[in-house]
Specification:
The structure is a single chain. The protein is an alpha/beta fold. The protein has a single domain, classed as Glycosidases (TIM Barrel, Alpha-Beta Barrel). It contains 17 helices and eleven strands. The strands form two sheets. Strands 1-2-3-4-5-6-8-9 form an eight-stranded parallel barrel, surrounded by four helices. It has a two-stranded antiparallel sheet with strand order 10-11. Helix 13 packs parallel to helix 15. The longest helix is centred in the last third of the chain and has 23 residues. Bound molecules: alpha-D-galactopyranose. Alpha-D-galactopyranose binds next to loops.
Length: 447
């Protein structure tokens, strides 16, 4: 009898745990970092002079330097957090495998998380009626455990987007180019309906958990809305639905639907690359966002991806942020009840170490201490500039596009492998001078 009772009791307890749905995790931010750091300049220099690895327990946490200034973010893929969920903190502290240390590094140093690939629409809506939010759910779980903010990346893009959305017959095996030639692309109504259905499913699923979204990514070419010649079928199909002379109505449709389903509290952003130097694109972005704000489409900010190079002109970049940040005046005028809510975020920061552009170099390269120092100096200058804007309430997040040099998209170009060294830790997870340069820039802005 006693045995039966205890089995029933155990079952009831288990049911209780399952039904309340919340798993409890250790306090990672405390458990992964030794107590007592002062985050002072002297302490920083002591550590910068040592060899440190990203997940060392006796190492200050990078996000702490940025406390009260910006959220410090990082992008990762779901395999980099595959160790997450192991609640045995001793095991977590002792484990020395590279992937495990990346997971720990993410938990320790950053307080804003982004999934690099698995919240893109081709992953989440691979076929009509099929939704795959499992990896997004993992992001939510690790975010909760680490008390991190989450960015949802990304809903509308021309790349990594389900091809079936754009076809009259979703099962048509032809390529989009063939459909275009044969007149068998989806109609404006079909594509709008598929986009709105997807946004409804996505926003409903993540409603309480992901508060910031890149609703649209890379919708501009150098001067205006992307066309078929820029690999995008959005403008070709949905086009200028309201007859105002601009074929960017799909952008409005996406923002309006996301707002309607996700609610007024969400931060809905538009994200793009090359904004740091390409003035024609900055003008196109400014003009489009201004026009949409005046039309009542609430866009809460612009993401500067910031895949920059060692040769980045920081003062040029500053001017371009200034211009886009000045959209806040239009925003405040159009949405006085949300005054002050418009922001710029640095969404995909990394630094290509091949001076003079992205492509053209293949193979493996050994970076010298001097190269690393140049990179650190550039990172300092950049982050210092970003924090000038943060001081004025214009930038509220800086997100790195990866944890370490081994895990970076810049190691592959045009499908070929090469080495690059774009991030704050090297491929063995040793901290680079850039890590400390970024921390130094933050200390400079400490009040
Ligand atoms: C773009 C996208 C990102 C990512 C990077 C390369 O910047 O916005 O999602 O794909 O390219 O990794």
């Amino acid at each position: 009898m006693k045995r039966i009772l205890s089995v029933i009791l155990a079952a009831v307890m288990l049911l209780g745990l399952v039904s309340c749905g919340e798993t409890s995790y250790p306090d990672y931010k405390t458990e992964l970092t030794k107590e007592g750091f002062t985050y002072s300049a002297d302490e920083l220099e002591d550590y910068a002079a040592m060899d440190c690895k990203i997940a060392d327990y006796d190492l200050p946490a990078l996000y702490k330097y940025f406390d009260g200034m910006v959220s410090l973010g990082v992008a990762f893929t779901s395999n980099q957090i595959s160790y997450f969920g192991n609640k045995d903190i001793d095991l977590l502290q002792e484990a020395n495998d590279l992937d495990f240390n990346i997971t720990k590094g993410i938990l320790k140093h950053y307080n804003m998380y982004v999934l690099g690939n698995e919240l893109k629409s081709d992953h989440c809506n691979p076929a009509e009626g099929v939704y795959n939010f499992d990896d997004g759910d993992k992001l939510v779980e690790i975010g909760k455990a680490a008390g991190a903010e989450l960015r949802g990346h990304t809903i509308v893009w021309h790349s990594q987007v389900p091809q079936w959305w754009f076809k009259a017959d979703p099962n048509d095996p032809s390529s989009l180019q063939e459909c275009h030639q044969n007149g068998t692309l989806a109609s404006r109504e079909q594509l709008t309906e598929r986009l709105e259905t997807y946004i409804t499913e996505l926003m409903t699923h993540f409603k309480d958990d992901i508060k910031i979204w890149d609703v649209c990514n890379e919708v501009l070419n150098g001067t205006g809305i992307r066309q078929v010649s820029d690999d995008s079928y959005w403008a070709e199909i949905i086009g200028d639905a309201d007859g105002n002379g601009y074929a960017d109505d799909y952008v409005e449709i996406a923002f309006n639907k996301a707002r309607e389903v996700g609610g007024e509290d969400l931060v809905l952003m538009i994200n793009d690359f090359n904004l740091e130097w390409q003035d024609t694109k900055v003008t196109a972005m400014y003009d489009m966002v201004e026009r949409m704000l005046r039309k009542g489409v609430r866009i809460d900010g612009v993401g500067f991806q910031s895949h920059i190079g060692l040769d980045c002109d920081v003062e040029h970049y500053r001017r371009n942020i200034e211009k886009i940040a000045s959209l806040s005046e239009v925003y405040d005028e159009c949405f006085p009840e949300y005054k002050g809510n418009f922001r710029v975020q640095i969404t995909e920061l990394d630094m290509n170490m091949y001076v003079g552009g992205l492509s053209g170099q293949y193979g493996f390269h050994a970076w010298t201490d001097e190269d690393y120092q140049k990179q650190a100096d550039k990172y300092f200058e950049l982050v210092d500039m970003f924090l000038d804007f943060a001081d004025q309430g214009k930038i509220d997040a800086i997100v790195f596009w990866g944890t370490d040099d081994q895990n970076s998209w810049l190691n592959t170009m045009d499908g070929k492998l090469r080495s690059n060294a774009a991030l704050l830790a090297d491929k063995n997870l040793e901290l680079k001078p850039a890590f400390w340069a970024v921390a130094r820039a933050a200390l400079k802005h400490r009040k």
